Amino acid sequence: MPEHQEDPVPSRPITSPHPVMTVILTTALLILLLGLGGTVIYLTGLPLDSPVPLVFAPIAVGLGIWASVTRRWGILGFGRPRVHGNRAAWRLVLLPLLAVFLLVLATTGGAAEQSGGDWLGLIGFVALVGFVEETLFRSVFLGLLAPTGPRTAVLVSTAAFALAHAVNLLGGQDLLSTLGQIGFAAAYGLFAACAFLRTGSIWALVVFHALFDLAQLSSVSQTPSLMDAVMTVILLAGAAWLWAGIRQSGQRQFPQVTAPTPGVAPAPR
């Protein structure tokens, strides 16, 4: 479809009279829905290994419809990334993500043998998770929390993202493994929140999230505990560096971005 020539339309901000409470309640509702989804799968015998597709698929559709109708794709970070004049920030975002991804590839023993159908299902799964979690916990939550200031926005959105992984306990996962996932999610959440505030773009985070999950879920083995610790340190160091850039630039508001030009598909497929 040819692109229209109209000027980009500024995205409307995401607001709530009680942003922190909205984030808390939304996260609690998500955990509840995932728990209910697991119960539905158990009682009905649906051929699903996880309640995530059952819950995230309608959320993804809802986010897409809402962002399109309200013209908020830009404020969600799905506009064209602005690299010119911001190359240093992009290096601080991409290099830690690349390092973490390469460490996963190097320490998980490669991909396990799977059929073509299994690969397609897995790719669809990680794409769904990457889109929903990054859009919700970064784009939407940071937008809602913008009036509270960058520090509160980063900390609250990170806490919500980390605690959401406690839902794995409902699936029978042991406490120690779940605590480890919560800790890693907190480190990544800090990095991702700072990266989004620094660049105003969500694309790199969605792609990394999907590729990271794909590498982990398709691998012969999981990353060793020592490597998890190394990746956590990399993400925390990257978050600290990005946050220093946010403070030095005097940034006090949510990144100002513009919506994609009408006629161009804004959402990842």
Describe this structure as you would to a colleague.
The chain has helices spanning 19-44, 52-69, 87-107, 116-145, 150-164, 175-199, 203-218, 225-248. With 269 residues, it is mostly helical. The chain has one domain (19-248). α5 (150-164) packs antiparallel against α6 (175-199). The two termini are 16 Å apart.
Low-confidence stretches: 1-9, 256-269
H/E series, N to C?
A: HHHHHHHH
Residue share in helix = 55-70%
Q: Outline, from the CA principal axes?
A: globular
Whole-number tally of structural domains: 1
> How would you characterize the largest beta sheet?
none
Structural class: mainly alpha
Our Rg estimate from Cα atoms comes to 18 Å
Count of helical segments? 8
What's the total count of β strands? 0
InterPro entries: CAAX_protease, Rce1/LyrA-like_dom
GO molecular function, one term: endopeptidase activity
Keywords: Membrane, Transmembrane, Transmembrane helix
Protein name: CAAX prenyl protease 2/Lysostaphin resistance protein A-like domain-containing protein
Key phrases:
mainly alpha; single chain; 269 residues; CAAX prenyl protease 2/Lysostaphin resistance protein A-like domain-containing protein; globular
Overview in brief:
One of its GO terms (biological process) is CAAX-box protein maturation. With 269 residues, the protein is an all-alpha fold.
Layout: helices, strands, pairs:
Layout: H1 19-44, H2 52-69, H3 87-107, H4 116-145, H5 150-164, H6 175-199, H7 203-218, H8 225-248
Helix pairs in contact: 1-5, 2-4, 3-6, 3-7, 3-8, 4-5, 4-6, 4-7, 5-6, 6-8
InterPro entries: CAAX_protease, Rce1/LyrA-like_dom
Transmembrane segments: 20-44, 51-69, 89-107, 152-170, 182-206, 226-246
Pfam family, one: Rce1-like
